[in-house]
């Protein structure tokens, strides 16, 4: 059994090395991501262990199958950049890591909201300018707000637990009801109902074609004036132009964004000293009521360890038993 891992970061290496020692399986580590130009590298390997923001190359699965590859295991949860149909046609099982740390993302989403509600960035800027005044930036308390959770999977549930600790009122929408949450009577019947009730809207759903630009001009019009939006899920869920217009008009009081629809050329790249050509992004980050972070909500020690370990375990399991608990269904 022999694996190849792509896009391996320094902070992941210790977990790869521990797993390799414990399992006595060869895993070759590459820092590059999978591109159309390096597909031949996968020849001779049983499993490819990957994590990349960009789309996997179109011909990846046919090439890997042609070389006798057995399983494709990603070290993250989202499968929106994978051609699952091509994987199925080429009989390559795909595994992901569905629960590497729901708390990592939930905690970060709450962090963004706290910073927005208490204007921390504004005070930070003032401090740097020797300006220690308070007004007019009176904060708001989560305790007094109704928080709307869109998506009640593992991350949404973790966020709900945290917000309950703050004493917030919670409303949630998901087409699939979680039986435990059902008992708490927090589900509303539609996104529209949630938009009408929530002071804060926090997104915790996967990116699907159907939900692309779910938060658009029409959705925003249904929201309360002065609503806050938090997105640690996927950039494509929000029509950024519509969001920007609503932030400027004051309809939306603030946005905490750890994802952005055109993030791939920007996030996790060192662009110091370079001009970012994306004007929409530049405008967004220039606003005082917007916090943008570079897709780091997941990025904790617990999450990184689980991402590496579970991906490797899953690949091994598919090869040894033909299946894994983390198999992705098309
Ligand atoms: C995911 O797990 O899908 C994330 O968004 C995290 C990121 C490393 C891709």
- When the domains are counted, the total is 2
Helix-strand sequence = EHEEHEHEHHEHEHHEHEHEHEH
Q: Which regions are unreliable across 5 or more consecutive residues at pLDDT < 50?
A: none
- Per CATH, the architecture of the largest domain is 3-Layer(aba) Sandwich
Structural overview:
- The protein is an alpha/beta fold.
- The chain has two domains: 120 residues, NAD(P)-binding Rossmann-like Domain (Rossmann fold, 3-Layer(aba) Sandwich), CATH 3.40.50.720; 191 residues, Rossmann fold.
- It has twelve helices and eleven strands.
- The strands form two sheets. Strands 7-6-8-9-10-11 form a six-stranded parallel beta sheet, sandwiched between helices. A five-stranded parallel beta sheet has the order 2-1-3-4-5, covered by helices on one side.
- Helix 1 runs parallel beside helix 12 and helix 4 crosses helix 6.
- The longest helix has 21 residues.
- The radius of gyration is 21 Å and the shape is globular.
- 2-OXO-4-methylpentanoic acid binds next to loops.
């Amino acid at each position: 059994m022999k694996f190849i891992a792509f896009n391996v970061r320094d902070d992941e290496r210790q977990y790869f090395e521990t797993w390799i020692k414990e399992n006595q399986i060869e895993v070759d580590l590459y820092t590059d991501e999978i591109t159309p130009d390096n597909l031949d590298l996968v020849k001779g390997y049983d499993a490819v262990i990957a994590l990349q923001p960009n789309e996997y190359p179109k011909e990846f699965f046919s090439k890997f199958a042609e070389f006798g590859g057995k399983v494709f295991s990603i070290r993250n949860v989202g499968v929106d950049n994978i051609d699952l149909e091509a994987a199925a046609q080429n009989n390559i099982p795909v595994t992901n890591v569905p629960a590497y740390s729901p708390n990592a993302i939930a905690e970060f989403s709450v962090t963004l909201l706290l910073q927005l509600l208490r204007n921390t960035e504004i005070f930070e800027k003032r401090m740097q300018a020797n300006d220690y005044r308070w007004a007019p930036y009176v904060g708001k308390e989560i305790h007094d707000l109704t928080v709307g959770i869109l998506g009640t999977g593992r991350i949404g549930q973790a966020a709900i637990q945290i917000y309950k600790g703050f004493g917030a009122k919670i409303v949630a929408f998901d087409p699939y009801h979680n039986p435990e949450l059902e008992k708490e009577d927090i589900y509303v019947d539609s996104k529209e109902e949630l938009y009408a009730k929530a002071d804060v809207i926090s997104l915790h759903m996967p990116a699907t074609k159907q939900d692309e630009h779910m938060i658009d001009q029409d959705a925003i019009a249904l929201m309360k004036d002065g609503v806050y939006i938090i997105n640690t899920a996927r950039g494509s869920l929000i029509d950024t132009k519509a969001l920007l217009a609503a932030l400027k008009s004051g309809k939306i009081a603030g946005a905490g964004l750890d994802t952005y629809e055109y993030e791939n050329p920007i996030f996790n790249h060192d662009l110091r000293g370079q001009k970012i050509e994306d004007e929409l992004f530049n405008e967004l980050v220039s606003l005082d009521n917007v916090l943008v972070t570079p897709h780091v909500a997941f990025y904790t020690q617990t999450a990184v360890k689980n991402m590496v370990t579970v991906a490797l375990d899953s690949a091994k399991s598919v090869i040894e038993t033909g299946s894994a608990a983390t198999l992705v269904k098309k």
